Amino acid sequence: MAKLISRDTPLGEITLRKYEKPQGMTRRDLVRKLCLSLGLLQPGDSRDVVVDVFQVLLENASSKEAISSQDIESLTIANREKHGLPKLGIAPSNIRRQVLRLRDLFLVEKIGNAYRINEHASLSEIFNEKIERYYLESILSRVREYISEIDLVFLKNKQSELNNESADKLNEERN
């Protein structure tokens, strides 16, 4: 009989971090903290081109126009130059990968061959409707299923032992 190989590939995952309140920050720093908060960027990571890609898409959001991947690339490079940052991670393939990561979190959507902030919605709406209510809730629901199953498997025997001990004590007290 063939042996089943279990893969630990998550069906969905999200990392959330809490930072200080957003006061007195530059636009790029605000986007950077949001990327850190949503797990798009790791603390101390110098490869932060996702910040520039996301900022370019946010800056473009007010125009209500989708933006091509070529425009995202050129504006991302310009944004890094403007902030005096090294041109690390600006290869077209990496920029497309960062856009995909933003799409995976429902922040950005693809319209034809162009991209925009999801449904021209505010980030508050996107977070509440797509991430918190849909994505996070489905992950929490599955975690609850694992917790319930562990309670059944590991604590069922423990609970029956406790019940037997309680019954024994009751019988001793009666006699």
Report on this model:
The chain is mostly helical. It has 2 domains: 93 residues, Arc Repressor Mutant, subunit A; 55 residues, no CATH class. Helix content is 59%, strand content 6%. It is built from 5 helices and 3 strands. A 3-stranded antiparallel sheet has the order 1-3-2. The longest helix is centred in the last third of the chain and has 52 residues. The termini are far apart. The model has no long low-confidence stretch (mean pLDDT 90).
The top level CATH class name of the largest domain: Mainly Alpha
Strand content: 5-15%
Tell me how many strands there are. 3
The value of Rg in angstroms is 24 Å
Mean pLDDT: 90
**How would you classify the helix and strand content by structural class?**
mainly alpha
CATH architecture title of the largest domain: Orthogonal Bundle
Distance between the termini: 56 Å
Strand order of the largest sheet: 1-3-2
- What low-confidence regions span 5 or more consecutive residues with pLDDT below 50? none
Named CATH topology of the largest domain: Arc Repressor Mutant, subunit A
Q: How are helices and strands ordered from N to C?
A: HHEHHEEH
Give the count of structural domains: 2
